[in-house]
Amino acid sequence: MQEGTLMRKVKSKSWKKQRYFKLQDDCMTIWYQSKRTGKTESAFSISDVETVREGHQSEVLQSLAEEFPPERCFTIVFYGRRGNLDLIAGSAEEAQCWVQGLRQLIEPRSLTSALASCTWIRDWFQKADKNKDGRMNFKEVQRLLKMMNVDMNEDHALRLFQDADKSESGTLEGEEFVLFYKALTQRDEVLSLFQDFSEDGKKLTLLELVDFLRQEQLENEGTEELAMELIDKYEPSETARALHVLSADGFLMYLCAPEGSIFNPRHRALWQDMSQPLCHYFISSSHNTYLIEDQIRGHSSIEGYIRALKRGCRCLEVDCWDGPNGEPVVYHGHTFTSKIPFREVVSTLGKYAFKVGHPSLGSGDICSPRELCAPTTFPGNSRFHTGDGYPRVLTSPSAILQELKHKILLKGKKIGRLEDTLDGPEDEAPDVSDDDNGAEAEEERRRVKVVLGASALIRGILYGSALQKDKETLAQVLSDCVVYCKNVSFRGFQEARSSSRPSEISSFSEAKARKLIRDAGNEFVRHNTWQLTRIYPSGMRTDSSNYSPQEMWNVGCQIVALNFQTAGMEMDLCDGLFSQNGCCGYVLKPPFMRDEETLFNPSDPGSWEGLGPITLTIQVISGQQLPKVSNSKEGAIIDPLVRVEIHGVPADQAHQETKYIENNGFNPRWDETLQFQVNVPELALVRFVVEDYDKTSRNDFVGQFTLAFANIKPGYRHIHLLSKDGTNIPPSSLFVHIRISK
């Protein structure tokens, strides 16, 4: 890694400033300073970096492609919603040195290796060692405790300090600081649990560990083999591993690992049947994907597509309009949002659409067919499919997900029927009916939807130029691209059943969807067993806020479009549902939502089928190293409480919370039990929220974790908290005990 490398920091085509970049000695921090003033401009932690992209992989660097070769350009991408850092090195060699060095530093390590190398301990030491002499006096230790969200009695802190100061030098260094840190982070609640199953209180024999796994963790299959695996994987002592025993340190490492998580590790991988019709899945879907801010003046960026796709989104929107020089552009029509070339959007989809391997959907406004169909519009080998080679079975009852893998499907207007595309044209009047009526038709009129997934679906409503509103023109070449997602107007469930086909799709605003749920819940569920439905946010949500997706999932709506750029409970639910099944963006609906004769109605308890009712009992035991509230005063310590929320059918909506713990964000103990009855667990999501209690104003958000009820592992489990942006905030966690009973 170069030290003090001079590179150009780029914000726009005209804003290119030279800055010195340097990796600090802790190998965890990078700072950069102005070449002209020598003043340190900013710094960031390696832990904040998600990935590094080489070449012209941002709008800014693409605009400079003729001035600077791709070998000298790279982009540092941060977690969450922090803006990217575009850099131009002085040479290709310097660029490669930084790219490869950063990638090595951010490459994730296993929990075992992280703990073994004391990663967190070193990180805290570097932060607290103010004078950088490699030692820590008691004053620096007190500063460390404040940084770690600990409000500890000074006498107790001094006692821990003196116990660790084996050299009696008045400072801690090396192994002494490790001793201090371990005393500080000792988990009494975990040690007590360990000793309950350990005869000598020092180790768990293989049989004792098996007893714990069966009795508390409810691991009833292959338990002895699992116990051996856990010892081999998490026991730090070679001697203990050879004796097939687990020490207290190994026990804690297991509980903090994926096997000790509340999220069933088997459900992280692709675990569901992926051979069902497309309408049998919930599909991760975004609204106006190109926007990364508000709906009126917000910034349009290909980053919106990259972030959504990397988050597992399978339904994208691409609103296309006539641009200069015959090139279509993407933006929110009739607003002041910025514009990006359609060519760049398509190129980005080609790079990122299939990283997760399953189909995607998309939508947007369309410019004139002449421009959209130009040979230069779709660069490279297009994956849009016109139906050639598709098995006939896909047309009835619906497209089979597995068969569509690595394809891009357009949703849009279509001349004639699907059969015409497969069998050849017939003499038939063009069918270019609207998706909806009234204001909703006007909303959909300016959209071309792109759906990506096990295959990729690009939904498109194909219209003439925005300057020719009164005259709709549908190009045959675009019509032929619409295979399994033909837009049709919705005129009632009875007419849809008698006249529509499984290869067609209707769209509803959130308000219309709520009315249908209220007036005809069961009919809506039945409709969604054989045909796709898309829901989009109200046009009044100009701030890019979101509606709750849960009420739409409750009736089986597959494509529930959200503003991915806006953090909050709604996106937590979306991330929670789609974090399973390999994060492929597809979740199989429960059996009673795939049966065309189902009686299920989310608002009618008499119609409920399935596993419920079930009692969910959660003992909230403790928290570990909870983060400080952003923008809090220096030295402030949080007063944390935990709220558990159930999201599901109306009767299951509930929340309960613990008391708050004063001045302890480091290792708060609650030991409180919360209990819920869940009537339809197949549709339920459970959200754990940690807040900083404030008696005079609204509580501040600290962290959260959301998962589907079906993914919960009972027993003693850790919940690894996520930030408001949905990113990890290690090592922050909750320790809970979960019981599920009929």
Structure description:
This protein is an alpha+beta fold and 742 residues long. Among the domains are: 103 residues, Roll (PH-domain like); 73 residues, EF-hand (Recoverin, domain 1), CATH 1.10.238; 73 residues, Recoverin, domain 1; 130 residues, Immunoglobulin-like (Sandwich). The protein is 26% helix and 23% strand. The protein contains 22 helices and 32 strands. The strands form 7 sheets. The protein has a 7-stranded antiparallel beta sheet, with helices on one face. Helix 20 links the parallel strand 21 and strand 22. The longest helix is centred in the C-terminal third of the chain and has 18 residues. The chain is globular. The protein starts with a strand and ends with a strand. 43% of the residues are buried. About 12% of the residues have low confidence.
- The CATH superfamily of the domain at 612-741 turns out to be C2 domain
The number of helices is: 22
The CATH level-2 architecture of the domain at 612-741 is identified as: Sandwich
Write down the Rg: 28 Å
The CATH C-level name of the domain at 612-741 is: Mainly Beta
Q: First CA to last CA: what distance?
A: 58 Å
What is the third-level CATH name, the topology of the domain at 612-741? Immunoglobulin-like
Across the major sheet, the strand order is 4-3-2-1-7-6-5
Biggest sheet layout? 7 strands, antiparallel
Total strands: the figure is 32
Mean pLDDT: 83
CA-based shape: globular
Note the beta-strand portion.
15-25%
Helix-strand category: alpha+beta
Point out poorly predicted stretches: 109-118, 364-382, 384-398, 425-471
Helix content: 25-40%
Cofactor: Ca(2+)
Domain EF-hand: 116-151, 152-187
GO molecular function: calcium ion binding; phosphatidylinositol-4,5-bisphosphate phospholipase C activity
Membrane topology: Peripheral membrane protein
